[in-house]
Design brief:
Blueprint: H1 13-16, H2 21-46, H3 60-69, E1 76-78, H4 84-89, H5 94-101, H6 136-149, E2 156-161, H7 168-179, E3 184-190, E4 193-194, E5 197-198, H8 210-214, E6 218-222, H9 226-241, E7 247-252, H10 271-278, H11 282-292, H12 298-321
Parallel strand pairs: 1-2, 2-3, 3-7, 6-7
Antiparallel strand pairs: 4-5
Helix pairs in contact: 2-3, 2-11, 2-12, 3-9, 5-12, 6-7
The chain binds thiamine diphosphate (TPP) and magnesium ion (MG).
């Protein structure tokens, strides 16, 4: 039946999912915070203030939606290097991210020792990651195993790119999680490229279909539609808590920026292709949805941009003036130091 209703007399999509008006506005705010942080970091790198930035532009809508479908007070998170909008949504601050990108001692992610985008926070249950891609997937399965063994009500949530899903770690982790029915959500951000390699040269099939072989569901979802992403992650979480095991989710999106600040993407893709994908940007589409729902306006948008400009300015000033790590601290946390304090 064709709907003749106005917005006011239809139940809106977000309410059908149990999301309040306040929550969807919050989701939008985090998407924009991720985007603004990212754009500013690209500028800082071009201005020679920081060495390197890996951008997540184009992936924020899915990241924020996933975070909102999780229990942000209890679950364990193993994000990958493009997940700025995700880590901001679970409580990391722009100041903490700037301390990391400026490689300062106070950076809670690694004390300025890891590359930017290598997130870690005990406070937020963000598990520190390594540079070899996909190593976080077996780690996430380990956290899910701990939840099961200790009978705790949390899930572990892990993200990675589609190119990385060809690494052995992904398959070993999926197999172990499937055999043991572990509460883990395995979330692939399929952004169509692994550096310069387009998806059709990486994969003969769909990432999500691989779940079948490991004995759990695999779902492909439009990553530019945050409400759909929210729905599938929420379902996956409920299955995990009910003891039904893992879910593999493949969120489809597009990497709008180059692979990193060291990459010239126009050497392997056209500007027309990138421009075409900008039209599908999940943030712009979600803003249109909120405006249609009467929940957002141009004035609110202006205020938000001004608020974030100020927040980022302060975060940058703080991080720029913060001290670097001391050279003599280089080996801290590399070797077991417990014996030094009179231990065995
Ligand atoms: C084991 C390993 N091989 C290669 C690299 C170099 N590398 C870093 S990112 C990347 C591309 C990964 O592509 P994808 O998984 O699709 O994630 P995306 O960068 O597109 O988000 C590669 C090959 C690495 N870090 N680790
Ligand atoms: Mg990719």
């Amino acid at each position: 039946m064709e709907s003749q209703g106005t917005t006011a007399n239809m139940i809106s999509r977000h309410k059908q999912l149990g999301l309040t008006d306040g929550q969807v506005i919050d989701m939008y705010r985090y998407m924009q915070l991720g985007r603004k942080y990212d754009e500013r970091s690209l500028l800082l790198q071009r201005a020679g203030k920081i060495n390197f930035h890996v951008s997540g532009i184009g992936q924020e809508a899915a990241q924020v939606a996933a975070a909102f479908a999780l229990d942000r007070q209890n679950d364990y998170f193993l994000p990958y290097y493009r997940d700025y909008a995700f880590v901001l949504s679970v409580g990391m601050t722009t100041r903490e991210l700037m301390l990391s990108v400026f490689a300062k001692a106070e950076d809670p992610n690694s004390g300025g020792r890891q590359m930017p985008g290598h997130f870690g926070s005990k406070r937020l249950r963000i598990v520190t990651g390594s540079s070899p891609v996909t190593t976080q997937v077996p780690h996430a399965v380990g956290f899910a195993l701990a939840a099961k063994m200790q009978k705790k009500k949390f899930v572990s949530f892990v993200t990675f790119g589609e190119g990385s899903s060809n690494q052995g770690d992904f398959h070993e982790a999926c197999n172990f999680a499937g055999v043991n029915k572990l509460p883990v959500i395995i979330f692939c951000q399929n952004n169509q490229y692994a550096i310069s390699v387009p998806v059709h040269k990486q994969l003969g099939g769909k990432v999500s279909d691989r779940a079948l072989g490991y004995g759990f569901p695999g779902v492909r979802v439009d990553g530019n539609d945050p409400l759909e992403v929210y729905r599938v992650v929420k379902e996956a979480r409920e299955r995990a808590l009910a003891g039904e095991g893992p879910t593999l989710i493949e969120a489809m999106m597009y990497r709008l920026s180059p692979h990193s600040t060291s990459d010239n993407d126009l050497a392997y893709r056209t500007k027309e292709e990138v421009d075409e994908n900008w039209k599908k940007d999940g943030i712009a589409a979600f803003r249109t949805y909120l405006i249609e729902q009467g929940l957002w306006s141009d004035e609110q948008e202006r205020d938000l941009v001004a608020e974030y400009n100020l927040e980022l300015k302060e975060a940058i000033a703080y991080a720029e003036n913060a001290p670097f790590p001391k050279p003599e601290d280089t080996l801290l946390h590399v070797y077991d130091e417990s014996g030094l304090k009179g231990g065995a």
